[in-house]
Structures are given as C-alpha cells and as structure tokens.
Design goal:
CATH architecture of the largest domain: 3-Layer(aba) Sandwich
Structural class: alpha/beta
Distance between the termini: 51 Å
Bound molecules: pyridoxal-5'-phosphate
CATH topology of the largest domain: Aspartate Aminotransferase, domain 2
CATH superfamily of the largest domain: Type I PLP-dependent aspartate aminotransferase-like (Major domain)
Number of domains: 3
Shape: globular
Number of helices: 14
Radius of gyration: 22 Å
Number of strands: 17
Strand order of the largest sheet: 6-12-11-10-9-7-8
Largest sheet: 7 strands, mixed
Amino acid sequence: MSTPFHRIDHVGHPHIRCDRRRTDHSVYTTRVRNDLLNDAKRHRFAFHFCRVAGIAGKQIITPPTKITSMKHTPGTGTDSGYVPGRSIAEIAEEYRIPVDSIIKLGSNENPLGPSHAAVRAVTERASGISVYPESDARDLCDAISEYTGHPAENIVAGAGMDGVIDTLMRILMPGEAITPTPTFSYYAISARAHHGTPVFALRDRDFAIDPQDILSQVTDETRVVFLCSPNNPSGNLIPESDLQTILEGLEGRDAIVFLDEAYVEFSERSMIHLAGEYDNLVVGRTLSKAFGLAGLRVGYGVMSERIRERYLRYATPFAVSSLATAAGIAALGDREHLKRSIELVRDGRRKLAGIPFHVYLSEANFVLVDVSPHRSDAVCDFLARSGIIVRDCSSFRGAGDSLVRVSVGTAEQNARVVEAFSEFQGTYNK
Ligand SMILES: Cc1ncc(COP(=O)(O)O)c(C=O)c1O
C-alpha cells in the first residue's frame, strides 16, 4: 500500500516528495513522483538532485532510516515549518566545493564571531556544567538591565528570542496572532504550535506596515500583534507613531504588541523606551546578532511586571544554560566588540548597495535584493555554485519569488558577493 508523501532525508530538501512502499521488513521502495517533477524543477536543489541521481520516475531503494514521516507542502515555507539558511556542509556536498572556500551569508550571523570575553567566560565555566544554572537567569537579567536601562523586574531571559516567543505563546494562545508579512516566520509557527491562528496582514511595496489595516483585523480573539523593526527580511524600521497607534488601538483588550528588535543594534533607532510607557508592549531582543552568540541561544524580553509575572509562572525553568548565561554577561560587557560589529555592518551595507540590482535601504545586518526579472532561486543557485550562501526569500510568506537576502560579511566577503552578483548579471543579462 502506498503512503502519501514522505521526504527522503538524504535528499536534504523538502520539495522532493516520494511515494513510499514497504516491500519487505527492511527495505522501502521509493519513487519520485513524475507529476512532482514540474514542481521540483522550480526548486534548484530538488531539480539538481533528480538530474544527478537520475531518479526521475525510477524505482530506487532507500533504507528505512533514510525516510522520515514528515509531510511537506511545496513552496510555502512558512506553513511547512521554519526554513533555516543553508549550511556550509550542505553546500559543500551539493556543489562539491571545499568547505573553507564557502562563505555563509544566509543567516545574519556576526562576521567577527563572538567576543573573546564571551569565549573565555564559556571556557572558564565549562567545568561547572554539572550544576543547574539559576532558574530565572537572574545575573543575566541584571546585565541586560544595565545594558538596556530597564529594571531587572521588567526583564526575562530565554533560550534565544525564539524561546521567549514560545513562552509568550504558551500564555497568550489559543487566539489570533496578527503578523504583517513578509516577516520572520517563527511568529506564525510558534502561534500555531500553541493552538493559535496566525492572521496575516500585508506590508506595502516598500514593506511598510499599515497600522489602520492591522487594527481593522483585530477581533475579540486577537492576543498579539507581531511587529519586527528592523524587519527581517526587508531591513526597514517601523515608525514610532505607527507602533503607538497600534498600542493605543489595542488598549482595553486582552492583547499585546510583540516588538521584535533582533537587529536593532545595527539601526539608528530603538523603541524599547516605550516598554516603560505601555503596559501592552513586549520588546524582544537577542544576543545572536550584534553580540555573536547565535550558537549559544540567548534572548530576552522587556515587558511590564504584570506580563512578566505571568511569563515566569509558565516559563521553562533553567531555560538559559550556565554557559550561555556566562557568555551573555561577558558579551554584554564587551562594548568594544559590539562597536566593531556595528561599524563593520554599517560599512558593509554601503558596499553591498553596489550589488547591480535593486537593493533596499536596510537598518539591519543584511540587505534585501530584488533580482527581478530573474528568480531568486536561480540567483541563489548561481551564487552557491561560487561558494556563497545567501537567503532565497521565496520561503517567506508574501515575499514573492525575486527577493534575495544577503547578510553583511567581512569587507572581503562583501566584495566577493558584489562580484558574484555582477557576474550573474553579465552572464544572464546579455
Ligand atoms: C527577526 C528575528 N527575530 C528573532 C530571531 C531569533 O533570534 P534567536 O536566535 O535569539 O532565537 C531571528 C533570527 O534570525 C530573527 O531574524
């Protein structure tokens, strides 16, 4: 009996779907469906794999361990789970490129790496990992308090900002979560995971939000409006007056605004001061970007005491590990590293503005490029073949299929990126 669509794990891409038939106790027969090839063709890796492996419509034998039971819906990354940036190992294997010649500019990481003080703190604390950390990461919250200027009584720390979002969804959902797209996809994923319903509002052509449109979507079921400033993937800020309009429009309702400031250090303006003024505002931040601690998972939220009290009641205890806490405190104290990281990004953005397509103005550590009339997947494939990983934004709901996000790298990496885009232009725009 054939079961519906399963992914072959070693294909490593969600867009190849297969019929799976169990033929005996240990062997599965897997056939890439012919009718999916048209679809697969639109996805560079799937198409590439089918061609190279010669599996179009043929029977191939795959051990059971290579098959997962995940279901996927092609082309809608937001609905089928979080789509992370591609890894160096993946690209090295797919394109047979030496690992050390690949540059990874698809996940908005810090090209300087972490602060040395943070690395030292991790090393020094390593022998203490048999002991639980503080359950509420109090010392880290004190350091965040010093950095943000907000009292520790208004701060929570979590396993990345994603962890903070998850805990908030635990207390706010079920209900509706308004999300202006395109934006960071994890808001909708987390809301759904907690039995909530994402409600999508559209940003305009320049990725600006429309506060009145957002407020018109508010119902008695609305529990949260997610706003991202600077927005991922577009890099633009939300005007403070727009945020205030939404906060005031929600007054008297059992709903908050979650303002995501993951990239705020690279921008000219934060709105975190409003967290002290509006009881219904939660500001999320992370140490994954400007502080270079993405691998350790440290994020935080600034919120009213009322919301914090509810948050702590339902939060996972010990959410921030002892090593992450130590590194976080050290990184927050290393202002020199922070300053250098910000300067590098600001210089790099100027360099990336030289990419020969429309490059949106960005206040983050990435730029968004519209590669029209070309498709984003074709451009990303071309760059990957030259060992450059960037982010194809077609998996962002509402982003269309011509947007590519490029993280700012070192000066040398940025120059390589501009050159590769120019080469693409030279090759395909003749
Ligand atoms: C806008 C935005 N918010 C939140 C996050 C998640 O941050 P963290 O690594 O702290 O979970 C990301 C990560 O890329 C992001 O782009």
